[in-house]
Amino acid sequence: MSLLAVNDVSVSFGGVVAVNGVTMRIEANEIRGLIGPNGAGKSSLINAITGMIRPDSGTIVFADRPIAALPPDLISARGIGRTFQHVELFRDETVLDNVLTGLYSHHVYGVVAAMIGAGRARRVEKETRREAAELLEAFDLTTLAAAPVRDLPFGIQKRVDLARALAVRPQMLLLDEPISGMSEAEADAAVATIRALAAERAITLLVVEHNMRVMMRLATRITVMHHGAILAEGTPDDVHSNPLVVDAYLGNADDNA
Q1: Most buried in the list 52, 150, 164, 238, measured by CB within 10 Å?
Q2: Statement: residue 170 has pLDDT above 80
């Protein structure tokens, strides 16, 4: 049984069809790439999966439970996390505080215990900060822990966004252009970190990314969207050599990678 099953999903805005009858299966622990030209429907599909918009038709099933009618917070609670193309961080907070925000969603001790520093609360707080430190180290952010996010370049903010998304401990994580704004070296390091942490934590990934050099290294399978529909699907090598994909997308994408 697939971890995520998208079944004949369509989404339209004011009569314009953004997603047109998309069916897609993603298996547990898979790293699935999602590519296509601008306007192909990729972000609309991700927004439908995460509850930001409701599909006009079709069903979305995650871990054997339908989620298409749920609001974003309940979908997140079911185990689906995401990042955004334009980072959504607490800009006035520090790098560390942004990562801790994700981890604090897992606290299970009571408010009174937290206030008086009872034993369980102290242990959980210590473990939370240890995990935050590990994530900061993984994304080379340790020296920036106390820096306000607003003062950081966009590429570094993207790394903070990735660390916070992993801090939520999702079963599945949807990454929307996770390396945009990064240098080539930063992108390579981020990809290596994402792959390692996804394997270590058994996280399934769905990744939207225009950098095909990165996508070829990261994804185990790639789905190609065009005009709101699925154009092709297969291994990175299969997709890269597919004439339909080359005509619709890869010719330009390779030039811009």
Answers
A1: 164
A2: yes
- pLDDT tens-digit map of 122-148: 777 778 888 889 999 999 999 999 999
- What is the reported pLDDT for 256? 43
Q: Encode 217-236: b = buried (16+ Cβ within 10 Å), e = exposed.
A: ebbebbbbbbebbbbbbeeb
Sign of the Cα pseudo-torsion (73, 19, 63, 85, in order): negative
Say which amino acid occupies 85: Q
Any domain includes 113: yes
Phi, psi of 100 (to 5 degrees): -60, -30
Range of the structural domain that residue 125 is part of: 89-169
Residue 58 lies inside a defined structural domain of this protein: no
Order of all β-strands in the sheet with 221-226: 80-82, 172-176, 204-208, 31-35, 221-226, 229-234
H runs (alpha helix) in 3-57: 42-49
113 pLDDT higher than 60 = no
- Residue 121 sits at φ, ψ, to 5 deg, of -60, -40
Q: Which of 76-90, 108-122, 147-161, 243-257 has the lowest mean pLDDT?
A: 108-122
* Distance between CA atoms of residues 30 and 203, nearest Å: 8
Domains in the chain, number: 1
Rounded to an integer, what distance in angstroms lies between the CA atom of residue 227 and that of residue 10?
A: 12
Indicate whether 76 belongs to any domain: no
User: Is residue 153 one of the residues assigned to a domain?
Assistant: yes
Q: Which pair of structure tokens corresponds to residue 86?
A: 């334009």
